[in-house]
Design brief:
This protein is α/β, with parallel strands linked by helices. Helix content is 25%, strand content 27%. The protein has a 5-stranded mixed β-sheet. It has a 4-stranded mixed β-sheet with strand order 6-8-9-7, with no helix packed on it. Helix 3 links the parallel strand 4 and strand 5. The two termini are 22 Å apart. The mean pLDDT is 88.
Length: 171
């Protein structure tokens, strides 16, 4: 998943050792970012507030973003806490066990660059996001790639031999 998001894997830890010592299992770095992204596997079934509060101090000092992976996701109170820190995201083990982004059934999705997005908005003479079809932030592909809200995603669907391009704004 980190590679699909454009990160290079710079460090991998033994999973059991990392979970026991609360270390990141993976560290990924993008060429344009100074700090890496950390991936933590949480030992508890649900991510608790204590876990999040232990990890928050790493943001901006050791890591640019943090991904927490667990069996059942965060508790309801932890979800509220995570709204305050958008640099921390969570994902379920079962979502990572199968890479649906590379499945033949799911069409390729690509985040447009800001320049491509401006050109597309000029081409279709649209200014507001509500004029575009939506791709919701709860969509699994949006969560997998962590597409930012308000940006346009290009979807290449193959009908016959040639791809048809569709555009959606992430909301």
């Amino acid at each position: 998943m980190l590679e699909d998001r454009g990160y290079d894997i710079v460090d991998e830890q033994n999973v059991q050792h990392a979970i026991k010592n609360e270390l990141p299992v993976l560290k990924g770095r993008r060429p344009d970012e100074e700090l890496p992204m950390y991936v933590f596997f949480v030992e508890e079934a649900k991510i608790g507030v204590k876990t999040v509060r232990r990890i928050v101090p790493l943001i901006g000092v050791e890591a640019h973003r943090i991904l927490l992976v667990s069996d059942e996701g965060p508790t309801p109170f932890t979800k509220k806490e995570l709204l305050l820190t958008p640099e921390i995201e969570y994902m379920l083990y079962k979502r990572l066990s199968f890479n649906f982004a590379r499945c033949d059934i799911v069409p390729p999705h690509r985040l447009l660059s800001e320049e491509e997005e401006r050109a597309l908005r000029r081409k279709f003479a649209t200014r507001e996001d509500d004029e575009w079809p939506k791709l919701y932030s709860t969509d699994p592909i949006v969560r997998y790639f962590n597409f930012p809200s308000g940006r346009i995603v290009e979807i290449s669907r193959y009908t016959g031999y040639e791809p048809s391009l569709y555009y959606r704004v992430v909301q």
